[in-house]
Write a structure and sequence with these properties.
This protein has helices at 11-14, 18-31, 52-60, 95-103, 109-114, 116-133, 138-143, 145-155, 162-174, 188-212, 218-223, 234-265, 267-274, 277-292, 323-326, 362-379; strands at residues 35-37, 46-49, 65-66, 136-137, 226-227, 230-231, 297-302, 306-308, 311-313, 318-322, 384-385, 390-391, 400-402, 404-406. It is α+β, with helices and mostly antiparallel strands. The strands form five sheets. A five-stranded mixed sheet has the order 1-2-10-7-3. Strands 4-14-11 form a three-stranded antiparallel sheet. A hairpin with a 2-residue loop joins strand 5 and strand 6 (230-231). Helix 12 (234-265) runs parallel beside helix 16. The longest helix is centred in the middle third of the chain and has 32 residues, at 234-265. The mean pLDDT is 90. Pfam families: p450.
Length: 407
Amino acid sequence: MSLETMNPTDFAFWNLDSAERDSYFARIRKAARAEPLDVAGVEGTFYALARHDDVAEASRRPELFSSEPIATSLADPPEAARRFFGAMISMDDPRHARLRRIVSRAFTPRMIGGLRGTIEREAVRIADDLADRGPCDFVEHVARPLPLFVICTMMGIPEERYGAVLEASEIILAMGDPGFVPPDGRDRVTVMAEKFGILHGMMAELAAERRERPADDLVTALVNADVDGQALTAEELGKLFGLLVVAGTETTRTTLSHVLTLLTEHEEQRELLLSGLDERLPGTVEESLRYASPVSWMRRTLTRDLDFAGRSLREGDRVLLYYCSANRDELAFHDPGRFDITRSPNPHVAFGAPGPHFCLGANLARLELTTLLRELFTRFPGLHAAAAPVRQPSTFVNGVARLDCAF
């Protein structure tokens, strides 16, 4: 596949060697122009934004680069599933600002600090399980449990329903790619509506229960929240639940798997980390987020004609903000192809670029990552990837489906 025929909206592109993908984005950055994209099976005009400055500028200007009708899918939501979409990640102000004010109460430093003990205990349990189990699939047995446990604990979801939450979130993420085929062969829209319906149904049940019997969890806070004289509707609660479940599990799990892979591939960085674990862990997390970019892109839709990134964009055109490319921009990072856990400054956009949609859960994710990694590398300093990671089929997330580990 030549640079000219590469297309990052195709699954085939993400099966290429990472160096080939980097070469494609480097060519776009050098051209300093939004790159036209041919999106198979989706109507509309698409462009890729690859430079750090362009991604940041578009993120700061939601009045021009709208998150509506959807930010996480190439195609607009199908009519049959539209009632499930429209969580705040796919909203503009004033609706976005209202919901963000409510949800932000769950992500204050005090609230996140209150989760520290819970996260530490779960990290110890995961490490104990790893010691008993021995070499295994790192994704299934180490990376997956913690973020799922944390978000379900915050929401007050019973443990027996964790599996259903995980399955729904993984299918929903995969549905953002037009080429994805559900494992059971059913119609995509039907399956997507079903999975969203499961999450919305859980929220409806929990919300009704918490109104009668309040508890110390996020659902209780949300159903009793009142901003500007308005409370959340049942539909808004369901959409928020879907967003928090998907966003709160996938990216943290993915980053954990990338950290192990990167430290295995870069032995000198592992040795540096182990020489000062507490001091080096925060930098290791930030550099892994930059280098791996767990979320590859977000979509924006032009609200009016605009000259931007060397192109005359038109109202209704869609742009993909390629975080994975912005995080390798030579103008924003010194030697961006090098994995360096001491990198400073590190203005990566793995949690989204500065603007109203910067990830609310960024500090919670950092706490989860540093807590589990500290526990793992304290007890298993030789923990490493025993094989190349098996990539999750997606153009949207740089996910890892399986990663064999040993120690």
